[in-house]
Design brief:
65% of the residues lie in helices and 0% in strands. By secondary structure, it is an all-alpha fold.
């Protein structure tokens, strides 16, 4: 399986089945899932703490550990989408459109901040 061949829908179905087989539906409420996602995001962040960007992914083992934590974050995001019946493709495309409107290319190309704001671009 690869990103180019697996859909959000297929991943969500896999996770629904995984949860159903273990009778975990009762534990999968949006609040607890969001809290679990936050914990997993923190575990992902730990791999970058006090290291330069290149050092964080220098070894295959470190890169795999990051991939595992990123997968956990995505899995909990998918669980939340299942619990709230959110169409992720629609939500992501909507958010991209909102960001494009908020950060137009003519003002933000090559910049992380609004022109004229202090700090680094």
């Amino acid at each position: 399986m690869a990103d180019s061949t697996v859909t959000f829908s297929e991943l969500r179905d896999e996770l629904r089945e995984f949860v159903r087989e273990r009778d975990w539906e009762r534990f999968h409420n949006p609040k607890d899932l969001a809290m679990a996602l936050s914990v997993e995001a923190s575990e992902l962040l730990e791999h970058f703490l006090w290291r330069g960007p290149a050092a964080s992914i220098r070894t295959p083992a470190r890169r795999q550990a990051i991939a595992d934590e990123l997968a956990d974050v995505l899995i909990y995001g998918l669980h939340i989408a299942n619990a709230l019946d959110i169409d992720l493709s629609e939500a992501v495309l909507h958010k991209i459109a909102m960001s494009a409107e908020k950060y137009p290319t003519d003002r933000f190309k090559g910049r992380a901040r609004e022109p004229g704001e202090g700090g680094r671009p």
